[in-house]
Amino acid sequence: MTAPIETPAFAQPANADLGSYVRAWWARTKAGDLGSLPILVGLALIVVVFGALEPVFLTSANFVNLLLQMSGIAILGIGIVFVLLIAEIDLSVAYVSAVGGVVTTLLLRPGDPGWPWWLAIAAGLTVTTFIGFLQGLVITSFGVPSFVVTLAGFLAWSGVVLILTTETSQAGTIILQDDIVLGLSNTYLPDVWGWLLALGVTGGYAAVQLLRQRSRRSLDLDAKPTTVLALQVAGLALVTGFAAFYANLDRGVPVVALVVLVFLVGWTVVASRTRFGRHVYAVGGNPEAARRAGIDVDRLRITVFMISSFMAGVGGVILASRLRSVSTNTGSGNLLLEVIAAAVIGGTSLFGGRGRVISALLGALVIASVSNGMDLLGLPAGVKFVVTGLVLLAAVLVDSISKRGRAA
Questions:
Q1: Is 7 helix (H, G, I), strand (E, B) or coil?
Q2: Tens of pLDDT along 273-313?
Q3: What is the tens place of the pLDDT at every residue in 5-23?
Q4: SS3 annotation, 182-217
Q5: How far apart are CA 261 and CA 220, in angstroms?
Q6: Crossing angle, helix 60-85 and helix 297-323, to 10 degrees?
Q7: In 3D, which of 343, 384, 338 has the Cα closest to residue 363?
Q8: Neighbour-count burial of 218, counting CB atoms closer than 10 A to its CB (0-12 exposed, 13-18 middle, 19+ buried)
């Protein structure tokens, strides 16, 4: 139920060589299984175009700014990936993140009530997680589409943000006054820690892939050839090493990048290595078949909306840290558009059952790069919305076309 049926043309022997692996990859690509190929091509085009139009785009200072800009979007996008995997939608995520940021900021005010940073963050995340529970409960108990319930949440939680900010501040702006929380988005790792982070990411990826290769070969299943694995590890080492080097030319790797990495790895393990993750993909692929297989579909849906709201709360704290405050317009603007677009552009299917957690990171990188480049060019807000919308439409079209190819 959870594994796709593989035709002989797409299969490869357990001890496949490089040539057979490449032929199998090309066959899957022609059949519509594009993987991360579109996003990588898109990123290359973005770098070339904006780098040619505005040289500042390629500077180390702007690279660090880009890491900061994409962090909040990536965190919120991780939660949206889980929602999209079960073929649902969460339109309230932007204002749920605002609620988390506002609650945390209010609890951190010195002497009023002056909670410790860890307790204030825990309270904010508890509130947002409970919001996800309520919305998931309404969706599953009354059969109301998630689009309607979360749209109602979009309106309701925006009102909660207005109430909380205006009743505690006449100006509608509350300054974040905790050094540790402020440091999430405003401090940077020493140069040596940036290099160690790059080394850890590469080493961890290599270890996981080697263990996976050994396990699959022991079961006489298809596995990546050692040459392909070595090339992938070398490529990742080149990317992470260059990122650390380039960030160290300016302020260094932001601490928030480490936070994003921790959540990315953690939720990737949940999605790909646990029973819960397999159930998520099963429900997204065929809810009725999953139900007949004994999966509690309603409970899983509630849990997924709780995950989305929890990650929204984390993103809200990060965004508040980056802006050093919260206000009446927190969560407004195009944040919702950027978060959903990041998940879809990164390769998560709107039809459910297909996508990876890393989609949020890749999509956030695209969205942040496009937004950053247009800001540097001084383009008007209307043009930014048009361009972002076209990028999102292109991603959806690629997803739809590849789905037809796989079906055929």
A1: coil
A2: 999 999 999 999 999 999 999 999 999 999 999 999 999 99
A3: 333 344 444 455 677 777 7
A4: HHHHHCECCHHHHHHHHHHHHHHHHHHHHHHHHHHH
A5: 33
A6: 160
A7: 343
A8: exposed
